Give the backbone structure.
Amino acid sequence: MQNTMTMVDTRRGSSGRKRRPPAEEILVQRFFIVALSILFVGYYIHYSRSQDDRLAEEFSRGHIHVMGLTGHIRHNPNDSPSNYNSKATIGYAITVTHCPAGNEKIGPEIADAAAVLRHSIHVNSIRNAESGSKYDYQMYAIVHHDAVECAGPTLKSIGYKVLSRSSPVELKYIHGEYLRERLPNDGCCGVNEFTKLHAYTLVDHPAVVLMDLDSLVMKPMDNLFDVMIGGAPLIGNGNIEVAFGDPIQSPHYDRSKGINAFFTREYNIADDTMEHVAVQGGFLVIKPSLMQYADFSSVIRVGEYQQEGGWAGLGFGPFEGSTAFQELFSYFYDHIHPGAGVELNRCVYNNMVDDPRDSNGGSCKDGYNRSDRKECEDCRSRNINEVVTIHFKLCPKPWECHSFGDDQIGQGQCKKFTAEWFRFREELETKEGNGKFQPSHSRGYCRSEGGDGYIPMKVQASADWR
C-alpha cells in the first residue's frame, strides 16, 4: 500500500547453491501434502465459520459439483442467490493482514477505501440498471486473525462479510529452509500475505475478484466473467484486452479446464535480469477451487525456493518480495498450470500510471523477454473512459490530499483518477464537503494538503447498495 518504489538488486550470487532434491522426491512430497491438504480443506468446509457452513449445505444439496478428473469445484452459475435476474453472483474480496501500529483505530486507508471501493463495484453491477452488467456481487473481507479486532467491525458495518483467517501454511511447517528463513522479512507482510489464497475457498461463486483497497472499478467486467464461466471463445478474445494483443488461448490452453485466472504483472519493478516478472497482486480474477487452494498450499509447504533461481530454481525470483504471494502466483500459472492464466493489458485493467520504460527512457519494461517489444503503451496516457479498474499503487492515495500539477504526464493521470475516487465518495455522502483544498478534484473533502487535511467519511452501509 506504499507509493515508494524500491530499487532491487536481482543479480544472482556465485555461491551458496544447495543441492536440489531429486524430482521423484519432490513429486512424492507434493502428492502426500496435496492429499493431506484436501483432507484439511474438507474439515475446514464443515467446521469453520458461517460462510463455510453454507458451503457444506450447498455440497449436501448438490449445488456445488466436484469435477474429479479436472480438479475443479465449481458452483452452478445459474443458481444466483440474489433478488436480481443476474447470470451469477461474483465474489469481490479484499484482504487486511495487520492493524495499524500499536493496534490503533483504523483510518481512511481501510474504512473509507473499503466503502468507496464497494460503491464503485455496486455502480458497475446489475444492481445499477444503467451499468448494463448482468452480474450481481457479494463483498468479502479476508482478515487475518491479528487484524479482526481493529478492522472487522467497520468492514462488517459497510456490508462486507468478514472472514477471519490465517495463512494457509504456518511458517514452521514450511519444509524449505531458505524460504522459511527469508519469508518473514520479505515483502510487505511475510507469510501473512498468503492469506489472500483463501479467496480460492469461496466456491459458492463462479468467479472471485481479489482487489487491493486502494482501487476502483470503473466499468463492468462481464467479458471476463463470461469467459471464466463459459470458456474461452473459439474465435477472438471475447472483447478482452489481453496483454501484447496475444490470443486468449495460449498453446497450453486446455478447454476442459478453462481459464482459472486473469491478472496483470508488476512491470514497474522489472529489469533485464528478471526471467519471470511477478504478477501484480492488487487485481486478480480467479475461479475458486479447493483443489487449487490445496495445490498452492502444497507448493508453499514443500518450499522449494532456491537462493539462486527462486521458485524451483527456474528464475521465478530472487528479488525483493519474490518469496511471497506475487511471484508464487506467477510460478503457479506460468509453470505448474500453464495456459490456465491469462495476462491482461495493464493499461486497461489495474492501471497504476506506471512509466513503461526503464530509468534512462530506453527499453520497454514489459519487453525484456520479448524480442518483438520495440514500442510500449504508456498507461499514463490511456483514455480514462477505456480504463476498467484503477489502482493507486504509484499515484498518491486520495486520502493523502495531494497537490497535483498538470505539467507531467503521470501527475495529470493521477489527478483524473483521484477525481474519480472523490466522485464515488461524494455519491455516498449525505452532505457536501466544505474543504477548500483543490476542490476541483477533492470535491470539498480536503481542508489542506497532506493526510491531516483529509475529512474522513462517516462510514455506514448505503441503502442504495441493497
In short: Confidence is low (pLDDT under 50) at residues 1-19, 43-81. Residues 38 and 340 are 21 Å apart (CA to CA). The chain is about 25% helix and 15% strand.
